[in-house]
Design goal:
- The chain is mainly alpha-helical.
- About 65% of the residues lie in helices and about 0% in strands.
- The longest helix has 24 residues.
- The chain has 10 helices and no strands.
């Protein structure tokens, strides 16, 4: 009886740790912003949630080595162009750190890429990472596309890895949070912001 009790505790602990791991690896946040923009631009909210996780791990203050900013890692040039197309008032590059602005621009851009590449997800994600100009160039090159419509090979390793990561995240988010966006019953996870603030604090003290 005692062995069974210990096994039950061990199994329960393993299950708890497993779900804790999943929540850390695949966090969720800014749900209202994601839903609002996903509906407006007719983009799957689970895809936007996945892109945010791959791009910034839900760190609204994230900045890449190339200067891309915020949750969906928007470059200043894309931000300026998108803000004019969308009609955002009082826009500045600093506003890319605001979740509602960043997700608005990022989701609009994903929608724009869907239109440009006829709804082909692989091309959309490749363009989001490497730029639509590069993707169009690859489609015209027989080394990368045999039919001019699909990519047989992607020359950038970073982009190849990016596609794999987003696609993996996309599957995980749809499985882990099934129905959450549709039902709007998932509260914002403020702990994500707290975790990133703690990381920044520790980094400052290490320097």
């Amino acid at each position: 009886m005692r062995k069974f009790f210990y096994k039950l505790i061990l199994m329960s602990l393993i299950i708890v740790l497993f779900f804790l791991y999943l929540s850390i690896q695949y966090p969720i946040g800014y749900v209202d912003n994601i839903i609002e923009n996903a509906v407006e631009y007719k983009v799957d909210p689970y895809l936007i949630a996945s892109i945010i996780n791959v791009e910034s791990r839900y760190d609204e203050k994230a900045i890449s080595q190339k200067g891309a900013k915020g949750l969906m890692q928007i470059t200043e040039s894309t931000g300026k162009w998108a803000s004019e197309e969308i009609g955002l008032k009082n826009y500045s590059d600093k506003r890319l750190y605001e979740p509602e602005i960043n997700i608005n621009i990022g989701t609009w851009y994903v929608n724009r890429l869907y239109k440009e590449f006829d709804g082909e997800l692989e091309l959309v994600l490749a363009a989001y990472n490497a730029g639509s100009g590069n993707v169009r160039k690859w489609l015209k090159d027989k080394n990368y596309s045999s039919n001019g419509e699909d990519l047989d090979n992607i020359p950038f390793k970073e982009t190849r890895d990016y596609l794999l990561r987003v696609e993996k995240n996309y599957k995980r988010y749809k499985a882990l949070y099934s129905g959450k966006f549709e039902n709007k019953d998932l509260n914002e996870n403020n702990y994500i912001s707290y975790i990133h603030e703690i990381k920044r604090f520790l980094k400052m003290n290490d320097n």
